[in-house]
Every structure is written in structure tokens, then in C-alpha cells.
Structure prediction request, 338 residues.
Amino acid sequence: MINFQYARATDVSDAVRQIAADPGAKFIAGGTNLLDLMKEEVERPTRLIDISRLPLKTVDETKDGGLRIGALVPNSDLAWHPKIEQCYPLLSSAILAGASAQLRNMASTGGNLLQRTRCYYFYDTATPCNKREPGSGCSAINGVNRMHAILGTSEACIAVHPSDMCVALAALEAKVHVAGPAGERVVAFADFHRLPGDTPQRDSNLRPDEIVVAVELPARGFAANYSYLKIRDRLSYAFALVSVAAGLELDGERIKDARLALGGVAHKPWRDPEAEAAVCGQAANPASFERAAGVLLRGAKGFSHNTFKIDLARRAIVRALTQAARGTPQSQSDKKIR
Ligand code: SF4
Prediction:
């Protein structure tokens, strides 16, 4: 049993003041990851600051044609929001590929960004884990690592980020609005999450005294030509072995612009603008898609149980781009790799 204090934040400033005053405190909103971590004694907060009643539950249009999504908008509400379905179906599709309906009803937008890896050793306090206990070692590198990373790994950690939603947000070039003692700042999505390096205990560049208040989407949603393809061990309620968020802007048979991000392969959603540049101006055909896959996967390295992910990712990229080029709407049943 972990003893902790409970407090409720009255507004964003109060939430920031409370988290800055207690380094052992954690914010709680939906609790869909934090409560699991507390039950396993991976997280032992001194205080839970309940932010669930803060006024961060709206989706508002921005003056440049995008959307500002409050950090407490539940994942289900976001996936089925008319503007998201219509203008950002890539995001809807990614959210609905994640977790279960019950979890999506509870999980918040901000919490989705901050969920922690599902590496089995991270949750098993009887085993060494640099992310849970820096300096103790990584049990996965020479252990069971079928679900682990093939890109951006370090000698300290080979965990993957578990989110589906974040893969779509990376492809869409979202921005994250965070508030801290000095006010609000905006972080490009590509800079929000971190690679493990020698500090795998830090998943993101959010500072300890900051709170996520919103995610902003730019006007371009790639709604006409997109695909979110998730490859997993079973068809629902499973984390990705590999996932692909793809968006294309076509001019006839030619690719005018492309967006491509991978999930399940790295400590953060994996995106490389050079892979997208490699297909711009090219024909939308399998040869171009193979080229993009080659660039995106350069440097990929497997471990004892997950080398299969490299070829799986290559084929998934080609299939997702093929689906995107065919246009929407898309059938989820057409997203199986055959
Ligand atoms: Fe811990 Fe990362 Fe190694 Fe998993 S991969 S055991 S999270 S250090």
C-alpha cells in the first residue's frame, strides 16, 4: 500500500503551483496508466493532484484554420469529434486503433502523450531497469525483447513509446502547449518526446513543474489520402508491433507532399523528413513507397527477438502508403497485411 496525499487543482495556475511545490507529486486525470503503475509500485507519488475538473475539455478552431484540443478531452470524444472525423481522419483512426473503448472513454489527450512504456521489465520491480531505476541496467537488451525498439536505441534502454495517437500527431506536425511557472510555451511535436540516450528515465522534454494544456493541429489534415495501419499480435486491445501513420497530397499520379511516422519501433514516434522528401515529386507507386521505407528505416537494428520488425515495418510502410494513395474512406478490414 502506497500512502499519498490527494489534492484538487482549482485552475491551471494552481496546478502548476502545486506541482512546483512538491517534486514527488503527480498529476492525475483519467488515471489509465498512472493507477497501474502505482499498483505495481513503479510510481510512488507523495501526492496526487487531481486535474480532471480543469477547463481543458474543449476543441476550438484556431485563427489559422487548425484546431486547439484541450488536454483533458477524452480520447473517445476526440476520435468521434465531427471536425476530427472530417478533417483529421488519420487522427481518428489512430486513436480508435488504441486500447479499448472503456480506456478511451477515460484516457485524456494530455495523458496519452505522457503514458509510459509497456516494457515488461519496467513494470517488474524485481528486475533491473534503467528507466525505472537509473544505473541499474537494462533487462531487455539481453532478455525478451520482441516488442522493443529497432530505431534510436541506446545502451541504456530499448523501450518503445506505446501510443497510437502520438504517431498520427507526429505525422500531422502537431504542437504541444504546456504551462509552467514562467507562463505558456509551445513545443513542436517532434521535440516533445525524447530518445533514451543515457537518460531513459526521461520520456519527454516536459519540465517537472509544467503541465500539458493543449495540443494544436495545423490546418492541413491529409483527409483525402491517409492511412493508419497498426500491426499487432491480436486485432484489438494490443500494443503495436509496428504502426504507420501516412498522409499524402497528390497531384494526379504524382506525390506533392507526404507525411510518414512509425509507432512501436522507437522511444518516440519515428519520423524522418528525408524519407518524405524522397518521394515528393515522384509517382505514387510501390517503387516510391519502397524508397521512402528504405530511408525511414536506415540505421534500424534488431535485437535477439525483434529483428523481424525491420522487414515488417518496411512492408507496413509500403502498404500504408498504398492505402493512402487509394484515398478515403477506408475499410479497417482492408488493413491486414497479407
Ligand atoms: Fe527498462 Fe528500457 Fe530496458 Fe525496458 S528497455 S528494461 S524500460 S531500461
Q: What stands out?
A: The longest strand covers residues 242-251.
